[in-house]
From TrEMBL:
DJ-1/PfpI domain segment(s): 31-229
Pfam families in UniProt: DJ-1_PfpI
CDD domains: GATase1_Hsp31_like
Family: Belongs to the peptidase C56 family. HSP31-like subfamily.
Keyword Lyase tagged: yes
Database matches in InterPro entries: Class_I_gatase-like, DJ-1/PfpI, Prot/Nucl_acid_deglycase
SUPFAM superfamilies reported for this sequence: Class I glutamine amidotransferase-like
Name recorded for this polypeptide: Type 1 glutamine amidotransferase domain-containing protein
Domain of life: Bacteria
Key words, A-Z: Glutamine amidotransferase, Lyase, Stress response
Lyase keyword on record: yes
Amino acid sequence: MATPTHRILIIVTSAGEYESAGYRTGLWLGELTHFYDVAEAAGYDLTIASVDGGRVPIDPESLAHDVLADQGTAERYADRTFMNLLEDTVAVADVRPEEYDAIYLTGGHGTMFDFPRSKALGELVAAFHDQGRVVSAVCHGPCGLLETTLADGQPLLRGREVTGFSWPEEELAQRADAVPFSLEERLRALGASYSIAEEPFAPYVVEDGLLITGQNPASATPVAEAVVRALR
């Protein structure tokens, strides 16, 4: 493990809409807040960065009243100081990995459009991995791992145990016809050993050394707990 900084970097999407449908999208807010709650309580300083920097789009469905209440996100959404953190984020290209102990890639369907296309994000994730720092992601966040190539020229995901948003969950979310690809299929195609929970939307986390992934929004809290354990 690299020298501890007691800081964690959180990456969020800059994409606010689908390309083949009119749906709005962006960050799934609870996947940020649940991780943030755990890591902050454990004493870590957190920085939120986005692919392009600036204001972060939020998936409107993650702001529905029942979702905010059921997922325990309402308090953070009502906190003006916290929500202001999403108004002017640093760009991924301007981040120095040596300043952080871990990186966490949040989800939301927006990540499917900008995470895999961001060369800067792929290089950043590779640097975290190659420097012996924790790499974590949840739900659609693993889209940011798809184009990550390590210093030895190998895909980060080859031969690794991972999870991420499943195709059955995509169908249940009624986005199967709108997403640009199946995350499940892409992870398998890169040589990853992909697994999921027995029931859709149940919490599920896979730990493979310093690579930690969660399947869906309900997995954000246990991913955060796993990251904190790994750092300690």
